[in-house]
Amino acid sequence: MQRWPHFEDGVTNDIAILIGIFTGLTIVAYNICLKYTEDLFWSNSEITSSYFVILIPAIGGLLVGIIVFLSGDMRRCNVPEVIEGTALHGGRIRIRDAFREVGLSIISIATGGSVGKEAPGILAGSGIGSMFAKALKAPDHRYRTLIGCGAAGGIAAAFNAPLAGVVFVVEVILGELETRTFIPIVISAVFATLVANLIFEVKPIQISYYGFVDPIGESILYLILGTLCGITSVLLIRTLFIVHDGFSKLPVHSVFKPAIGGLFVGLIGYFYPQIRGIGYDVIADVLVNSFTIQLLLVLLVLKILAFSFTIGSGGAGGSIVPSMFAGAMLGGAYGTIVHSIFPTSTAAAGAYALVGMGATLAGTARAPLTAVLILFEITRDYNIILPLMFACVVSNSISNSLHEESMFTEVLKRRGFTIRRGKEVNIMEAMFVRDNMRTNVHTISDEDTAKDLLDIMQSSRHAGFPVLDGNKKLCGIVTLEDMREKVNYGELDTRISQIATHDVISAYPDETLDVVLKRFAMRDVGRLPVVSRDDDKSLLGIITRSDIVKSYNKEIVTHVQEKEIRK
What is the pTM of this model? Predict the structure, then answer.
């Protein structure tokens, strides 16, 4: 099993099943531990009805600070680290730190920290996937796939949303979609959800009928809501990092910083207990229109602050549910206003709260498909899908235009990494074709025959060659695929000029690799001849997709080593 090159895809799928099962069991164990820990801190009515409740989040923060300090490693592991690992380190993450963060999140949430539990699910699943990959001595591409399997299983089991788990990994973690990657990730998400459901039956949120009452008029209203959610997403991201920067400069030992943040959360929670913990019950109340406009707006502001103080000070937990919480408050307040103005042509306020949840999540995570699917899967109601999709796309666009980075990639940007679609674009933008192309090119003449082409393919083991005319000028390119499509069995005397593709897509030596890589993707080709800017028939070399990947991986290793040295 350690000789991965001889594995077939079926074995990867089998491993994905195991990852899904173990991830589902881990999420179940996490939920049980979280419940008992919450009972430990909040079951005493005498304590919870006194001023002591202010100190409970601070106690949780102090415990987090002490554990991190005693572990001897102040580095933390969260969703940005999983993204960094898959993009820059061949899928490797710090397994011990990932599981430590899961334990820390139990403490943070159980003591009233204003965070979500989805990030621990992602970390637990990623840690399990990494353990399997490490045990099997998997190469980088398998490592990334198995990490993705675990992350998808974590989201799927945490929200009872397998589709959302899969799409989250594609949108946020890996940044790409390939059949070999997609199938095992789907399998893992399905099995993680099945295991979690077998032990804890998760029921969908019960909601009223939420659909378009007036499709044309409400579309405008949802457009406005999507815009507001995009602005709120940016406010959430920036508030978090303003608070984080403030605590970084605070002249206090790092052990005590989470406790100080917890104290702020405790003060807010004393007056507005709705902001403590995950807040699922509060969201459910908003969906059935239980709150006033004033309370909704107050909770919106206070949730952003409480979340920012929890995470910014060094607490542990996720950002997905807090984003959804803020969106529900915003959408609920907005829906109450518009429904009071247009009572006969708008849905109830809960519809706007539901759409606000998804739209704000789309804006903070830059994952509109994930946001749509999470809301659809936790409600199982298709009626709201059109306004939800519309608002999520609008929010994502507004948020992206106001703040380039997501909640996750902002962390990486501050470390000097700009991750897009699972790759660091800064590096690709600084690498040129001239430095990575092959100048020793195997070519073939347009006067040669199909038999000559087969002989060259067998001796060189290449699957495509530039075609030159009698003046040694580029006139086409011929591939094994061309042979299959244009040469019948036995017709080996067919000239290359009749087989080759003459509409040649080329690259120039002064182009950057990110530009060329996009051309590969758009045209679905595996190699490009490199030609002169002055004469597009003058062949200078050839560059392949594998050349770019190898150069990128080599540069990444150098880049990361240099950053570690500077640290």
Answer: 0.75
